[in-house]
Description:
By secondary structure, the chain is mostly beta strands. It has one domain (31-114): Immunoglobulin-like (Sandwich). The protein has strands at residues 7-14, 19-27, 35-39, 46-52, 61-66, 71-76, 81-87, 94-102, 105-114. It has a four-stranded antiparallel β-sheet with strand order 6-5-8-9, with no helix packed on it. The chain has a three-stranded antiparallel β-sheet with strand order 3-4-7, with no helix packed on it. Strands 1-2 form a two-stranded antiparallel ribbon.
Amino acid sequence: MSFLADTIYTYDDDTTSRMAKLIKKVNKPLSEETYLKISPNPANEYIIVSYNITSAINGLRLFIIDASGKTLFEKELNKAKDQQILTVKNYANGNYICTLFNNGKPIKSEKFIKN
């Protein structure tokens, strides 16, 4: 299944299979400004990280950091506009920060809650 940054997907939590199930696809254009969005929030098993970077990409990286400052996830990103589906089911319940870095500098951060 491929995910497009210009398509918003809505999910229904299917507790019997413990997986999120795609139930509806709604085409909605996203703005052309720099953004970072996380859904669902609060999260249980996964998050969808949608982002758009309007500046030139130079070492674009995505980090997830816990409340103590420990980096739990790091990934190099190759596209200026995309979505990433990340599993968070093994994370402890609490607050996390998802941050995009470009050229070694933080450009956008969003908080999410794992429960």
